[in-house]
């Protein structure tokens, strides 16, 4: 009898403990001390508690406390207005079972950074693959107004409410920046100094990932059937449709952001037509889920790289086709911009060391388009039109208000006639604004291609030293190139 009573007491005590734990307010990982909340706007605080639990929010910048009741599932969500104050703030969250205090909160600019390995590359670089400027950047990284949050790699078959593995909000310092995304750090550090406001950078990327993995099931089922019931989520997780969205993006929603940075495309290079559909769909998907409008979305065109051969001309073998699609996506996606990297690639390393230059070009987009710095140039020359003259073709360009520039002459141009065979061509800048292309082997030229190879080093710039993308004036699918 005594043993029976003890057993009952143990069970009752265990159940009371579980009830108490469940009743405590729980916050998502990204809502914590040291976070940066988007300034001067409406942000969302959310979390979980017991069903119908009464919760009080006491924010230091608000005159009155806010009260909310969790729903029947224990979910709660509250919109809060932030200010432009640069002072550190606190948030106290209380309920019958909880007393949470979040300290050292700042209002500022919050950017989400995602993609594959070139976005994931840290200041420390990869084995045998450096990030240029990392030592000096690390030495100068102590900045309490720059905050960093990292989502670790994780996949899921269904949308998760919270991230499972992460590095919580940290103030940038030599102790942590080496293992943070180099592009995200360089972008955030410069933005913080230029705007003189706090900046929060959220990094969530996975090397080798395909764009399909970053799209929700709601969106991607418009384009392909997705059934993960019998899929091994641990096998090539970064290629599984919806898997990374579920685990690495969904848990961050609805944390209010200013915009997003994206560097991905290498894993989709063999299907440029598909990418032209799926990438804009992903951006639309994220914007719909966040429900804060068409927030800025700036992305990087993949850099030239050998990809196992440089004499490829066919669509599935030549990364120039997906670079073309990425350039087109800047026109397809509202409130977006592209950073061109034709001069930053490395022939035998898919992870170029010049990450600060990439971050700079993303920053130029943001400064001009998002923050109103209209004198900051952000776009390199873009092919506009052509005309036949003197046995060659004259090419005209947009986004070259100050003219064109080449360090040591132009290289990488090819020209073709009606037979669709491209021959190496001579090219030169004329009148400081146009390019004249000609080959003695093509008597009646009609089309030109520039840097239309896997590996090439860009030579055409504007006077802001922003490079032109690889481009073609034709739309041929069956063109070839001359071989001796």
UniProtKB/TrEMBL annotation:
Residues 109-340 form the Sialate O-acetylesterase domain. Coiled coil: none annotated. It comes from the Bacteria. Keywords: Hydrolase. One of its GO terms (biological process) is carbohydrate metabolic process. The keyword Aminoacyl-tRNA synthetase does not apply. GO terms for molecular function: sialate O-acetylesterase activity. It holds the Pfam family SASA. The keyword Hydrolase applies. This is Sialate O-acetylesterase. It comes from Wocania arenilitoris.
């Amino acid at each position: 009898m005594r043993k029976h009573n003890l057993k009952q007491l143990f069970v009752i005590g265990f159940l009371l403990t579980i009830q108490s734990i469940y009743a405590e307010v729980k916050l998502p990982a990204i809502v914590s001390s040291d976070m940066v909340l988007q300034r001067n706007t409406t942000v969302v605080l959310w979390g979980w508690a017991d069903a119908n639990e009464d919760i009080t929010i006491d924010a230091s910048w608000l005159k009155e406390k806010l009260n909310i009741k969790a729903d029947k599932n224990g979910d709660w969500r509250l919109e809060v207005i932030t200010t432009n104050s640069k002072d550190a703030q606190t948030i106290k969250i209380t309920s019958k079972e909880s007393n949470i205090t979040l300290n050292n909160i700042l209002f500022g600019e919050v950017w989400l950074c995602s993609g594959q390995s070139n976005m994931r590359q840290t200041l420390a670089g990869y084995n045998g693959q450096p990030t240029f400027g990392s030592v000096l950047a690390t030495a100068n990284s102590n900045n309490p107004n720059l905050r960093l949050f990292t989502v670790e790699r994780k996949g899921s078959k269904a949308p998760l409410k919270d991230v499972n593995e992460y590095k919580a909000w940290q103030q940038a310092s030599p102790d942590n920046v080496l293992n943070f995304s180099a592009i995200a750090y360089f972008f955030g550090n410069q933005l913080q100094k230029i705007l003189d406001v706090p900046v929060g950078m959220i990094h969530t990327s996975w090397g080798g990932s395909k764009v399909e993995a970053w799209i929700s099931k709601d969106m991607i089922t418009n384009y392909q059937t997705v059934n993960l019931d019998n899929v091994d989520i641990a096998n090539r997780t970064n290629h599984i449709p919806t898997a990374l969205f579920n685990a690495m993006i969904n848990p961050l929603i609805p944390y209010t952001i200013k915009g997003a940075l994206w560097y991905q495309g290498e894993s989709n290079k063999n299907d440029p037509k598909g990418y032209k559909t799926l990438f804009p769909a992903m951006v639309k998907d994220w914007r719909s889920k966040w429900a804060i409008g068409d927030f800025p979305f700036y992305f990087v065109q993949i850099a030239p790289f050998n990809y196992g051969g440089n004499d490829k001309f066919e669509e599935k073998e030549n990364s120039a086709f997906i670079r073309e699609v990425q350039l087109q996506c800047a026109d397809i996606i509202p409130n977006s911009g592209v950073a061109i990297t034709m001069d930053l690639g490395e022939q035998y390393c898919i992870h170029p060391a010049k990450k600060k230059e990439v971050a700079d070009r993303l920053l130029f987009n943001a400064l001009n388009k998002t923050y109103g710095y209209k004198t900051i140039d952000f776009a390199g020359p873009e092919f506009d039109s052509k005309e036949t003259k003197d046995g060659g073709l004259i090419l005209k360009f947009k986004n070259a208000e100050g003219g064109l520039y080449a360090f040591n002459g132009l290289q990488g141009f090819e020209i073709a006639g009606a037979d669709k065979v491209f021959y190496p061509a001579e090219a030169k800048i004329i009148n400081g604004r146009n390019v004249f292309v000609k080959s003695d082997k093509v008597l009646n030229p009609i089309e030109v291609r520039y840097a239309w190879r896997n590996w090439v080093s860009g030579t055409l710039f504007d006077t802001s030293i922003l490079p032109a993308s690889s481009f073609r004036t034709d739309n041929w699918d069956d063109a070839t190139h001359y071989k001796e």
